[in-house]
Design a protein that fits this description.
single chain; mainly alpha; Arc Repressor Mutant, subunit A; three-stranded antiparallel sheet; 8 helices; 3 strands; about 70% helix
Length: about 150
Amino acid sequence: MNRQELDGLLFNALTAIYAFERDKVKRFELSYGQIYLLQLLRRQSPSRMSEIACRMGMPISTMTRIVAKMERMQLLERVTDEKDRRAILVSLTDNGEKTVRAVEDHSFSVLSANLNDFSEDELDAFVTTARCLDKILGTRPKNVSKETASK
């Protein structure tokens, strides 16, 4: 594959993902970062503010503002870590859990409906690509194995 074909392929893939995510932003009235944070905390809750900031590639001050806003929206809550009183733990509220479940249910519905038309080979190719997309794009942390990344 030459450079022009690869650039076009990547642009088309990113355009599709952008449109898919933009639909969720409109539908749920949350920013992309807020949706990602809810999904992150659904998998790793509670999490330290510093870990969240690092994972999202943001300064703690920016992450603090985002979490404060989502706390006012009653999606997240902050508590002091009992093991280390200097650390702040962030977790989903019941409303946050309900919201992230709705976001993920919507994604599942869209993908399921669209994947129904795929052949077995096309479905296998999609799953294989999705499982190693971080490796393809060079975003997989060096210490994460393929098995860990796909969970």
